[in-house]
Each structure stands twice: as structure tokens, then as C-alpha cells.
Records
---
Amino acid sequence: QQQVKQSPQSLIVQKGGISIINCAYENTAFDYFPWYQQFPGKGPALLIAIRPDVSEKKEGRFTISFNKSAKQFSLHIMDSQPGDSATYFCAAPSFNQGGKLIFGQGTELSVKP
Amino acid sequence: NAGVTQTPKFQVLKTGQSMTLQCAQDMNHEYMSWYRQDPGMGLRLIHYSVGAGITDQGEVPNGYNVSRSTTEDFPLRLLSAAPSQTSVYFCASSYSLAGGRETQYFGPGTRLLVL
């Protein structure tokens, strides 16, 4: 079964700090790597996604870095805020299942004031 | 638009009971799916559908049935509930499968406790 390995499982960051979450994937049919954000009691929602024509994508304080040769990608949250406290999931399209998304295990981020 | 709606929000079942988790979307999305979320396990795909009348199994389909008679609705049935099915269930939809590149819209979830 294809896997996406996400780390760390939990992360505590001080307000204003940088949060970094890493994901490693196996072969994929398509180079498209989204991150979903989930607040307590809510469903996940798309936060940011990267396609293979760039190695980095930035949207506000959120940046995805992509290393195709290492099959790794990461989410950086700059100037982390308490409102960023949530669970973050990385995902990758499956290689042999029509491109259905395979999700990582999730990272629970807590930003302390 | 209401987006993706799920009912009930919370349910307690006894082992062996059956129930249906409801999911509906009003975005005319072709692709719908069911996930379960467990601590440390992420989101695991149970079943999915690429259109009305077409369903297929995901990663963890055992103990669950689905059907897709309309574009809007995609119910998930637990035939004989087991404590291992205690979880949070999310329904999601997207315009198409498109190799996973379409944004998936998730419902608010159903918390299920099987005693």
C-alpha cells in the first residue's frame, strides 16, 4: 500500500516562530502535493498546494518546498500565530489508484502565545 | 451553497447494530469519497465514487457498504458495527478525480462511538 510519511506527529511553537512539517512520498502518477488544515471539530480544508513546475510556492505566511529527487516536500509557517493551531495533513496522488489522494498521518500544531 | 453536509454529527451504537451515515453535496461534484480519521493514522479512504452508479473500494472498505444513486448523495452503511469502527468519518467531494489534483471539499464529520 502506497504511503505518505509525515513528521512530526505533534509540534509546539512559540508565537512568531517558524513551524516546519515534513512529508515523504513514494512514486506518484502526478506531481501535485496539497496540504490540508483541520481545526478541532471541523473537516479538513485545502490550505495550499504545489505543482511540479516550481520547487517552492508561497501564499502569505505559508510556503511549500518541494524536492523531487528526494521525494520530499514540506510546509513552513512563518511568524506562527495561535490561530494557526490545527492539524495539518499532507497528501500525494496515488501511483496506481487513479491518482486518488493518499494522506499523511497528520501533525497537530500548537502555537503558544 | 451548503457545500458538503453530513448527518448525524454524533452517534452511539452497540456492537452488532447497523446504521447509515448520510452525506450530501450541492456543488454538482462527480467525485465523492468517505474517509475515517483515527489518531496517528491520518485520513484513510473507505469507499469512493466517480459518478452516479459507480463505486469502488478504498484502503479500508471492510464492514462498510456504499451506493450512489444520485450525484448529490453518497451514504455510508455500517452493516454490523464493531468497536474497531469507532472513529470520525468524513465525506468529501470534488469536481472530478483528475489525478487527485482537484480540491477536495470535506464535510463537518460524524463522530461514531461503538460500544
---
Amino acid sequence: DSGVTQTPKHLITATGQRVTLRCSPRSGDLSVYWYQQSLDQGLQFLIQYYNGEERAKGNILERFSAQQFPDLHSELNLSSLELGDSALYFCASSLSGIGETQYFGPGTRLLVL
Amino acid sequence: GEDVEQSLFLSVREGDSSVINCTYTDSSSTYLYWYKQEPGAGLQLLTYIFSNMDMKQDQRLTVLLNKKDKHLSLRIADTQTGDSAIYFCAENNQAGTALIFGKGTTLSVSS
């Protein structure tokens, strides 16, 4: 158990809908990362937050957004969902967020029908 | 740009050693990592090596780093059926803000 929690574990929804994925980092970690794992793209970095502020952006679509709250939990919002958004979404956390070991949560499996 | 490459599949017999190889491009990464993903599960940090080390041993796991060739390997001694999983090699991106992963090596262990 890495100490990173993610909810929900599974999510099934329809095209065009909007969903919110939630992540709580390990105790003491200030930085949260979101990754997407799909069969064709592999593991891709989406976005990083540090202590409530966005720090880095990767291959995140404009339909996707994230935020980190004062209690350091983070939410990833996915809107106008398409079939191709079906994937496993991971959250990871680290202490300060630069060049550090990242600990991953169990992931949220999203299926868009 | 940054890239990490791994062979996609490795099959071994129980009790043999497994060696999973990886090449990376960004020599500025402070650490290099191995993560393990079991079927239907999340990513588990298996081990990591600091970039100024050549070797790290942790029980059945040995990590070798050749910085000149930008080559990383993971050796699993006495491989067990429970070691069957996908193994990902990863490095930090240049800014240190994200991990760059390989496509993963599926290790299949037969009894």
C-alpha cells in the first residue's frame, strides 16, 4: 500500500458526460501528479500540482482539468467524454515535486460507452 | 526528446533469473526507477537507483546502470510465478516534474 488513495475504483459513463476523479496524497506529500494509462499511448503524464498550484503540464487535453485543494487532495475533471478517453487514470504523490520518487495510487478505471 | 525503451515481452521458467533491459535518453535524471504492475492493479514502486551509482541490490533484485550507454537493467533472481507482471522503467523528465515511462515489459513465469 503506497498511502495514495483514489476514488472511485471503477467508473462507467457515456460519451459526452463529465466525471470527477479524486486523489488523496500520502501523508506529508505536497505534490500530486496525474497520469493516464491506455493501451495505445502507454503511461502519459497529464499534470502536476504542488501545494495547490499547477506546476507542470503534460499531454492533457483541454477537455480535462485538475485542481489541488487546501487539504492537498486533488481532483481530475474529465468533460465531453469520448470513447478514446477510456483508460486507467493514476494519481501519484511526492514530497516536493522536483526529481523525486513518486508513489502511485491504485488508479481509477474509466470506461466510456 | 525524452524517451524510454524496453523490450515488450520476456518469458522465463520458475527458478531462473530474469533480466529486463531499458534504454533512456535523458542523462540529467537524478533517479531511474522500476515499477511493477500486476494484472488489474496499480503501479508499485519496485526499486530505484541514484544516477551516480552503478549497481543496487535489494534482496532478489539487482539494478545495473550504465550511464555511458544510458542502459538500465533489472535482474530478478530465482524468479517465481508471483513475479509475473508488467515491469516499467522510468526516468524523470528534464524539468524533474514528471516521470517518463517505457511501454513496459511483460514478464511471464512458467512453472
